[in-house]
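Researcher: I need the complex structure. Ligand is fe (ii) ion. Inputs:
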Amino acid sequence: MLRVSPGGGLRAAVALAAVLFLADGGDPTPAAGGKPGGSFTFAVISDTHTGGTKTTGQQVYRRILEMVNEEKPDLLVHCGDWIIAPTFDKAGHATADTFLAITSMLDSSIAFYPVLGNHEGDHEDFSYARSFYPVLGDSGWYSFDHGNAHFFVVENNSDAPDSALMGYRHCLPNAGINTPGSRQRRWLESDLKGRRPETEWTFGFGHRSYYGAEEYAGRKNVYVAREGEGAFCPFIEDAGVDVFFNGDQHCYTRTTPIRHGRRWEESDRSTVYLTVGGGGGRINRGGSERFPFPFLDDFPEDAYVTGTKTRHFFLLCTVDGPRFHADVIDTSGARIDSFTIVK
Ligand SMILES: [Fe+2]
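Model: Output:
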């Protein structure tokens, strides 16, 4: 449980609290939580972009945390871009304090799980960001079980081919999740093979988007991962990952179940991709709520359920045995999407 106190010693408090995730012997895999047969809830946010001189993101993040605290989910996953600095350089280090201070508002009963976004990237690597949350280990990827679900987090910034950030493609050599045989891919293959027999649901989290539809960030997508032999998306679809959550694009988009780059009628052996970047970052940067999507030629338009919703929001997900339900709630309290998957 990450619960930090504002003021002096903030980073140390975060680090100490996060160490609680570590099992004996330094295994970076957090211990299982919840009861396999019981229901539980988790919230998801992304792209809070706190810090800097602009306070909009900070106000939105505070508002969302108030709403999350009222709902009291078991877990909160943040899909990355915690801060507003373009890189985790000196200015970025300062904005991190703002992020951590606001995050300390989170109710102490709610476990916080971070994902590395591209704004957490240092000029050399992600080490400064990882120092806040030891659950990220030396790599930025990890997994854990909760109830009847398996959660895994990937670091999918390092091998994004379009990154403008220095050091990006070099910070974790041969670790790209989109590269078959890479250290991170081998870890995930082993991790998913090792799921507990009682696992009914598998949820993946990363920062970069594979099926988000925001115009602004289209060029930043990791399209290479969507199709083809050994590509990341078909790999997780075949492995039975039910939902993949990502940020990066500052909007909400939901796909149909997808398998190998196409709409798939069955939820079995296919994955729903959710883009959830509405945690506080700027949302008026070229998105559109029009449907279908005119922006990118290679988008399978029939694979989208929603248009690109540009609001500030969070997801509240409930898992109850073979039933998964998600409500997408904006900062006014309105539901902007809602869906259920039943196995
Ligand atoms: Fe972002």
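Model: Summary of the prediction. The domain at 10-342 is CATH 3.60.21.10 (Purple Acid Phosphatase; chain A, domain 2).
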